[in-house]
Amino acid sequence: MTGFFNTVRQDLASGLGLLTRLPVMGLLSPAQRNSMVAWPLARSLWCWPLVGAGIGAITGGLGYVLQSGLHLAALPAVTLALAAQTALTGGFHEDGLADMADSYGANTRARKLEIMRDSRVGSYGVIALCLSFLVRAGALAALPAATLIPALALAGLLARAALLWVPTCLPPARPDGLARSLSPLPKTAFGIAQGITVVAYALWAWWWAGAGAVAHTALALMLPPAGAALAVLCLSHAAKKHLGGYTGDVLGATATLADCLTLAALTASVHP
Questions:
Q1: What's the confidence (pLDDT) of residue 26?
Q2: 6-26 in b/e burial notation, b at 16+ Cβ within 10 A?
């Protein structure tokens, strides 16, 4: 059992270290902290949806406190919460969205991949970032303050689960980088990640349907996962057509778009 728990601890440290800026060394055993062996990033993907849900819950909690505790108006409250979320994650996925958007200014696959590795952000990237934050802030401002935690937890869960589907559809576009380290995708870890997502979504839908602040039509409950699936389909198609495969930036863009579409879809369940 000790070996199993050490594996889980290392996986959680890998997932948190990748998706957040939180210190993670405390999760490891002394032997793991002193080891020179690279962390098993691909093996840790089973916990990515859970990490995403945790990030969303923290963000939602802050938004709730700002609205209900400090009585800030909805839009500035959720915007500040999203700013805190960006600090927590380092804008990891948003960087991928900006890079992928900037690549549309090039005509060849090689030039697109070159642009996506450039740390500078162009006009397409700025526009994409502004639109993504506008959609999320607008959607969250339309939701009751009491639902911010479950709404953002769901969005974080589905966004990280959604990005894992891209490597199942496409090969890596480069021979190195994050994309290469996830190929071939570990089937067991992927299955656990999706299983966790399905169970968590079922529990969320049960709670959301019973919440007095929201409507609970079947269509409204189906829209969030449909939005995440749409993000996967759109960006997988774009990556295949323009890049010949996926990169880490494509995964980040998928997560960000899934986040936006999930939150937008949740506004359909708010009572008029």
A1: 81
A2: eeebbbbbbbbbbbbeeebee
